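Notes from hallway chat w/ T.B., transcribed later so I don't forget. T.B. wanted the structure written out for a chain they're using in a teaching module, and asked if we could keep both sequence and structure tokens in one place. Agreed to drop them here.
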Amino acid sequence: MNSDIIKLLPDSVANQIAAGEVIQRPASVIKELVENSVDAGATQISIIVKDAGRTLIQVVDNGCGMTPTDARMAFERHATSKIAEAADIYNLHTMGFRGEALASIAAVAHIDLRTMRRGDTIGTRLVIAGSKIESQEPEATIAGSNMMVKNLFAFIPARRKFLKKDSVELSHIVHEFERLALVNCDIDFTLIHNDVTMHQMLKSSFKQRIGALFGKAIESQIIPISTETTLVKISGYVGLPQYARRRGAHQFFFVNGRNMRHPYFHKAVMSCYEQLISSDSQPCYFINLEVNPDRIDVNIHPQKHEIKFEDEQAIWQILTAAIKESLGKCNAAGAIDFDVNDAPDIPAFDPTKATGVPDIAVDDNYNPFTDNVFTGTSVSSDFGHTTSASNFARRNPSASETRAALGMLAVTAPTRRDNDNVAGIVPDDTLIPDSFATSASPAYILVGDKYIARRSRTGLMLIDRRRAHIRILYDRFTSMLGERRMSSQHLMFPETLTLSLSEDIIMASIVDTLADAGFDIAPLGDSVWSINAVPSALDKANPADTLGEIVRRIAETGCTAQSGLIETVSLSMAESAAISYGTNLTTEEIDVIVADLFASSSPDFTPDGLKTMAIVSFDEIGKLFQ
């Protein structure tokens, strides 16, 4: 009996396995084909897509073209013209080098390639299906290559089933197109989807290409950066602080003409804005790095987005210095602007004029210790608030009034018996300071500008007030959206929201869900939307920021089911409407937040998995004093 069980996989199976790493969605095919066109020296590239890439992805270029033999060899695994030996990986001047992309694409789709070299009179046509060559014959065609990828993932039905809906996949295609067009400004690009031209741009400067992709307005919102050292040459643009965005910031890194993601360098950029923008805002940046190829390693991930630098720390310092210098030159921190309206007229000093002694009225009988602060008009609390007897009732509303002010449902906390311990809470007011030791003492107190504190049986409970409110509002909005009973409030003056092309595609696909949520929006053309009404529960939240955050989340998660859309919309709305850190809360408001939090089915975490509360045990507190 033969006991050998290890077998060599057929090339077709190996190619399909490799395709899982290289080709994840239609946007991945476009990336690989366009990069091949760039390596072929093309100056004009057209991308034609049907049904968000499911039916057809066609890339036409005027590059160098291929001979019939090269055309056939290009679809073999590890066949490449970019490198000859392993050492060449560290001296790359091309986008591709592995020789895996075309073989992977051919393993999962139908391929129809027409190509001809410049100067030749006849080209070749190659037809492949599932890694098998069906035909190759001479073909009259133009110089360059015309690659058609049909029925993507036809040979891997499971992978095709997991593709998102067309609007999401098209959004990813547009994102990939933006990256490719930005890094190759000397190439004419055209993007066509379902016979509609979405982008058509001629070669231009880097700044003009940014404006062509993201709107002319952005050109006035960015400033140049430039520096050159023996390690790295840095060029590009960074956004002015006043134009930082809470969502949808355009952030791109390129190295040697290649797109990359680099969290370490992103942190370097953000450190330059620490004192200039709020913590929840993001600046735009478009930064090119030119480094000696032997100082970087691009062979980290099959998609080649991750790159290792040999001199990361030094480049960090050079990058931050270049950005800070540009921000400083443009007075990004802002000059002090004194308001001269209604300013007093201060006369010029006259040294010959005598200066008189000012008249000061003094009450010799005043004694601050004889005032009865409890019978007067004001009482100063330990929190720095001033409370009058007449407005005390207004500062202490009823529970239902407080819930309405907080935008919450009137949810009653679970009934507890004396020996119950719900989430570690016990009726113990030992944490309340002496100044609050009255019959109206609160069960919880505020700690700093973030937390609500309360003693539990095992230690000190801390509740993050904003996260708790997000949890409460999310539960409410999810319920109301599911039942389609969200009320709207029409805006007196409609607002406008400008999106990128990829965001506009997603927005058009979720209009009905947003209508159920209480939004009334309408397209105005050129990726601009009119916001006519918003959910009443959003109150003072910025509707444009909320809608933009919804679109961003859907683009990231790719959710297509109605339940997923409801959850995404509910979370974005809850984060927009929730109280911010530092908000002053009355005792009643604190009690309502805590009661409604523990009435939730999942009080311990926010919908996106962040902790709403934590308990510091008595042992941990004791260790602080050892």
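Follow-up for T.B.: The two ends are 71 Å apart (CA to CA). Might be a good example for the class.
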